[in-house]
Structure formats: C-alpha cells, structure tokens
Write a structure and sequence with these properties.
six-stranded mixed sheet; 27% strand; alpha/beta
Length: 528
Amino acid sequence: MTVERNGADAPVVIIGAGPVGVTAALLLARRKVRTLVLERHRDVYPLPRAVATDDEVRRILQAAGLGEEFAAIARPAGGLRLLDARHRVMAEFRRSGHGHHGYPQTSMFDQPELERLLRDALARHPECELRGGVKVTAVEQHADGPVHVTYRDDEGEHLLRADAVLGCDGANSLTRDAIGAVWEDLRFEECWTVVDVRTKAHVRCWEGVDQVCDPHRPATFMRVGEDRYRWEFRLGDAGEPVRRLIAPWLPPSYDGDFEIVREAQYTFRARVADRWRSGRVFLLGDAAHLTPPFIGQGLCAGLRDAYNLTWKLARVLQQGGDERLLDTYESERKPHARHVIKLAVATGWAMTGGQDSAAALRRRLLAAACRVPGLTAAAGRGLSPPLAPGPLVRRGRRRGLVGTHCPQPWITADGRRSRLDELLGDGFTILTATEPAPSLNALAHALGAPAIPVAGVGDDGTLAAWLRAGRAHAVLLRPDRVVMDVVPAGGADFTDTAAWAALLHTTTRSPHPPRRTVKSSLPRSATR
C-alpha cells in the first residue's frame, strides 16, 4: 500500500465529484483551503438527472465563481401548474424572474453541462486536485488524529491522511456507513419512470412545470432546453410504451424526430441520515438526505450543505475557530432539509393523490384551496425556511430577519455594475441603517468585516427597505449571507457577542477600535 501524507497538500478529502462535491471544493478554494477530490468515474456522467434549481442555489454557484457561466446554460422557468386528469389547469403558482437572491426563482438546466462547468472551474484552481477512476474502500476517523482514507486505482491501494473528509458520495454512501449513520424513513416511497426527450415537435407546454394530478397516472412534465423535455410518470402494474405515455403533449399522429435521451426507473424516497458528522467526517447531499423531486429541491439541498459547511470548516482549519463551530452544520442544515423533504412529500401526496380512501377528498380540498385568493401567490414564493436558532443564529422571541438571507440587489460602485455579494467578499459584513456607532465599528474591526450604512445603496433602496421591513437598525451577515444577529430599530449594539465570538475565535473588544466607519466600496446611491 502507498501511504501519502497529505496534511499540507490536501487538508480536506472530498469523496465524490458530483455537483455537491465539486462545489464544496470550489468554495474551499476561495478560502485557500486545499482539497483532493476522489471520484470513481473518469469523466462527467453523460446522462441528465437534476434539471431545476432556485435563486438561492444560483447565488451559491455565484459564490463558487460560476454565476455568469451557469447563466449561459440556464433557462428561467415560469413556475408550476396543477392539471387535472384531462390536462385542465387547476391552479398556477407563478415564480418571479427576479427573486430575493438576485436570480430567477426557478431555472432549468442540464446536469452534465453544469458538471462540465464545475470540472473546468476546478481545473483552474491550484488548491484543488481531482483524481478520477478511483474506488474509495475505507474511511476511518482516529481519535484526536487525522482521518484515514483508503482508495484503490490502477496502480494499487493508497492511504491518505486528511484533516477532514466530506462524504459527497450519494445515496449508497460508503462514508455514511463508515460513521455508523443510518436512514430515518420519512414514509414516502414510489416507483416512477423518468424520460428525457429531444425533439423539434411542437410540444404542448408553457415555460414552467406541469404536474398532472391524476390518481391513475400522475405525471410531471417540463421543458428543460430549446428542444429538450422531461416527463416523469408513476409506474402502474404494467409498463406502457413511452410514445403512448407522452402522446397527449405531442401533435396528433406526430412521426417526426423524437430522440429518447434517457429512460430510467427510479424509486423516489424521503429519508434523512440520523447523524451527519463523526469527528472530522461529514455527510453532504444525497449521502445525508433523500427527497422526492416534486418541488425540485434535491440538488439544491446538497449545495446548501456545501455552502453552510465550507466557510465554517475553513474558519476552523485556518483561523483557529472552535471545533464546536462544526457542530452547527448539522444543527442548522438537518432541520432545514427535513422541512423541505416533508414539504416535497406533502406536495407529492397532494398532487398524485395517493391510493387510499382519503385520496379523493384530498384532491377536492386541493382544488378548493387553489381558489382561495392570494394562496397561489404565497405558495409560489421561496421554499427555503429560516435556519433554526443556535449559536450562529441569534434568534430571540421575535424572529425578524435572523436566520434568513440578505437580499442581493444589483449595485453600481466605481462605475461598475455588480451583484452585492461580489463587492462584500467572502467574510462577515455588518449592514446598518445609518452611520454605525463606534461599538459597531469595533465589532467590525474584530471580525475583519466592513460596517456599511445602506441608506440609498442597492436597487432602488432594496437593502434599506429590507432593514425597515425587518425593524432592524443593523444586521450581522455571515459569510453565507445568513443574518446571524440583529440590532433592533432603536437599539445600538448586538447583545451577547461573547458566545459566538468564542466559536469564531474572535475578540469582540478591540484594544484599538477604529475612530470612523470601516470604509466600503459601496456607494451611497446606486442604480440598477
């Protein structure tokens, strides 16, 4: 066996080079953390799988350095329609072309294209190394020591010693088994067939997703690209030819071009691993949770995992952050993922109807609910709930903005039009409604963060309006743009900063606080 000491070369080993694993590597590279990514395939898996993402995840891809490149391959989607068995519209849930995070609320894409973008970006970072064609055979956490990763390739067996391991190795995760985690079943399991088609036919569609609420043959349909379409059908007792299944969407007697890119059968499940961490070994993506696809959040959840964990891990590895900081990964992400999965399960049961005695009643109640004024508009908003209270989510009796994300407007600085995050950088930020008090300047100095008065900044005052709506004088933003703490309107300072400062290894009382506001490149006024 070849033994490699990788402490200086790759303190983090990532198992799995899918979108979650590679995004995690890119986010760590932004913080100068070296990674080694191990992948069993030598190239990108060529067939489509995930096809939808939301504006929050597009913001994560922006943070990974792929904002504009992904925009070139993405197609905004109009939302979701519920159809009855005769394809008549029961309800329509519109999604905005400009969401809270600065991107369309829903975007369609081809996963192999995304993975190629990610791999290309990985190759541009000297902090990242990808080894394909390898099989990881063991992951062992040693007490108060490095994590041992054993893998096999054409040259034999190798042993790596890593400071941390991220298991992004999918539903059949070896990493999950290695830490002794087991699935918690959230009680949803159905067999569906997924069909991806390329055709120039005039397919009956709109720029969104259709869900056919037919108890005998529930189905999902969406346009993915210019000539790319996806159908999903719940399997019955007997299989049917693909052309017969999708005939209602095609012109009568159509016999033109029709390429089946992929036809596969899947069992949709709802599961959450009972533990996501053991020491310095972590589970991300499908290794940690599985969701039915009804609200398009499978890949989104995995990229949220990567964004939540990577800045914390970098803080511990490079800036002396307390090991307890890593505990907040599971305590924040697990309840969030569970909420989204349960929403997907509820949506699936409402849409497909189920086969029990209450199915007909559920469908009637759904149809009635869709007629309630304002309900469909509310349902079309973001699907991501606030993070649960914890050491890095300082939520008191009033929720307000804490645990939610800061909006991302377009702003203009130094004659250049940019998205907010591009100017804030990768660290903490304090946003204030007015000029920050000396105490806030001191806190910003200790965090190495800018303290920015937002009056007049943003897209027609977006940030100022957001603070007013949240009744906040100031907010402390984490590197992942989650609001960590709030100074309420009429207040002057954050309270109880010592608790989280210890986790971050930050001294909140600077011996030499700055005498004036930390300067920012943000202008006082901006136009879109």
